[in-house]
Amino acid sequence: MKCRGEACFAQLKSTPFFRRTFSFAKLPRVTILFVCTGNTCRSPLAVAAWRALESAPDVKVLSAGFAARSGSRAEPLAVAVARTWNVDLSSHRARQLDETLMQSDLICTMTASSAQMLRENFPDCAAKIRVLGEFIPMDKKAETDKDRLAQLLEIAPCELQAQDINDPFGGSLENYQICGAQIQRAAGGLAAALRRGELKT
Question: In 11, 30, 122, 155, which residue has its Cα 20 to 30 A from 194's Cα atom?
């Protein structure tokens, strides 16, 4: 029995041949790489924060560390923070940053010094290396959230507007929560910048 028009196309789409041949249509347009030191705390949390966004642009997100021990698991406290976002990091395994990963369309480091180091070591990629904290929204709500978080954790207020997202490795759950709050806001700001077309990728 022959089919025509939309019915025929729908039937064709269900075949293995179509899925193999046209799978490129499902590939994200942009790849974002989050980079930290060991790829067990901040950069996995950045991936988790991105996945937790309700309306994130259709991009592929990866993470790596410039001093990673390949195969290491995410730190338990990082896993715990991600779990509060309904994201599971228990299967995460650290990987070392390499030239292949540096081919990503946008590379976000956690500190300005890390960004500078990568620009010096990968000069051809310098234009696409940014500091994730640059994307933390600069508005009154951020200050309100900062104060509310500080009260919740009963610690001194931390400056969420700073570019650097400090490494919580070896710290307390509160340190990881603060780090996670910074990363969440930065991920949201980055997604908004991509939606507005403010980044050249």
Answer: 122
Q: Count of CB atoms within 10 A of residue 81's CB?
A: 27
Query: Per residue in 103-156, pLDDT tens?
Result: 999 999 999 999 999 999 999 999 999 999 999 886 545 445 555 455 444 444
Identify which of 117, 124, 32, 108 has the alpha carbon closest to the alpha carbon of residue 67. 117
**Type of residue found at 173:** L
**Cα–Cα distance for residue pair 68/52, rounded to 1 Å:** 24
Q: Is the pTM of this model over 0.90?
A: no
At residue 172, the pLDDT reads 96
Q: Which helix (H) or strand (E) holds 35?
A: strand 30-36
Phi, psi dihedrals of residue 159, rounded to the nearest 5° = -85, 100
DSSP string for 60-128 = EEEEEETT--TTPBPPHHHHHHHHTTT---TT-B--B--TTGGGSSEEEESSHHHHHHHHHH-GGGGGG
Residue 32's beta-bridge partner residues? 61, 106
Q: State how far the Cα of 159 lies from the Cα of 161, in Å rounded to an integer.
A: 5
Domain-wise residue ranges, the chain: 27-196
- The CATH T-level fold of domain 27-196 is Rossmann fold (3.40.50)
From the list 201, 158, 200, 156, the residue with the least C-alpha distance to 183 is: 158
